[in-house]
Fold this protein.
Amino acid sequence: MVAVAFLPATFTVLACITGSLLLVLVYLDNRKSRIDDSINAFRRHIDALSPEARRNSVMRDSDD
Amino acid sequence: MARDLAIDLGTANTLVYMKGRGIVLNEPSVIAVNRKSGEVLATGGDALDMIGRTPSYIAAVRPLRGGAITDFDITERMIRLLLQRVGVSRFTRPKVIICVPSAITEVERRAVTDATRRAGASDAQLIEQPMAAAIGANLPIDEPVGNMVIDIGGGTSETAVISLGGVVALEAVRVGSFDIDGSIQNYVRREHGVAIGERTAEAIKIEIGSAEPGPQDREADIRGRDLVTGLPKTVRLTAEEVRFAIDEPVSAIVASVKRCLSKAPPELAQDFLSRGMYLVGGGGMLRGLASRIERETEVPVRMSPQPLEAVVLGAGHCIENYQALRGMFMGANKFR
């Protein structure tokens, strides 16, 4: 009888722990994708400044 | 559909780069206005010829001084005319990138973007001139090495150290080639008692001006107004006199380059010895300036192949790659 009385409380605690874990996982995943986004954006930025990328605008004018 | 534009709104000249086409306009930043009616009478080269030669009701002015807008209304009208001349109408509103001095204040920044938006741009972004100059001078700024660029314009001189696509150290002074012209005007007035105009002073600078003594030192006759009699008078100026006259602004420019060098991290500073510094901007074309900077800093100085166009070409590259390079715009959040 005593064990049955504790069941709802145990499930509530378990649900809270699972919920918190899920939130932490979602947060970590979000953070990772944010870091990946900045790495990609920085790479795009650097690539856009490379001599190959500049050939069309800057070098074309120097050739004229 | 409007083609996006990059504008180098300089104190001396304004250049416009159109996306996909290259430089489509290059002319002096001067506008002539009828003071009575408010009508614009001329812009660019035509207005430049009017400076100092207009009746009292016509004002031929440079709306920018020291890279800053001195007359908001006239600047807006000048930008509007520039945009109209390159085909922007009220139905085609392009994105516009404007090159501005890095030392610009928050108020001046807002004045430039507001003037550009009101003149017909759908979006106006600002980019620092030394950064645009480094891109336009084709320096390897995508690599983790020190690139130093000295941009000497009409109203400002800026020196920047750039590595990995960003500014590492920066030094700017509100001294440029117009200050050099002003020093010549003051010298001739003080030493010879003759008043000369800014265009005559500029002509002297181009003809016999230099920052270092050289084998081509010459003399030149100049015509002005005698301050005592009020009559036209001709005086002879030597290259040495002009060098003495312009020493103060030239020394200020060299001092700012030295300050920037001293701000650079040691790892990058050693790159300058092998790679040198790059000189861009019209003021950099002063005879002997590169060798004087080289002598005083002990770092080799190289002249960019297109000193006058480097800034607008760099901004043009940014408009061609607007999304990837938007982190470079002033006030933008980097890499988002």
The first strand of chain B starts at residue 5 and ends at 9. Chain B has eleven helices and 18 strands.
